[in-house]
Amino acid sequence: MKNRLFLKTLILFVFASAPIASAQVAENNKKEISNLLEKKRSYNISKGYGYCIQIYYGNEITAKKMDAQFSVLFPKIPTKLVYNNPEWKVQVGNYKTKLEADRVNLIFREKFSATIVVPMGK
Fold this sequence. Notes:
Elements: H1 2-28, H2 31-47, E1 51-58, H3 60-73, E2 79-84, E3 87-95, H4 98-108, E4 116-119
């Protein structure tokens, strides 16, 4: 008896949820969703996402020297000088995952001693 009641309830639930699933598919195709996705993509491009590696935190003159030194050693990796009153940061790279940033950080530590992985865009 319990099995029949459970089976009826299960069948009712499956049939009741079918219109909801099809409604969600129809909603995902709307223009508003596409616009939101495009806004998110443009935000990620402008603000950055993922992780970068900070190779220096301190005064302006040393930060600019470290930035130039890094650019000579690793010319294909982008660098960024960030000013947070009163200190300067030198951040390099743009990595999607922390694991990827950690792997590259091991290479940078050979030349720059105080490197850390930091999240971007937050």
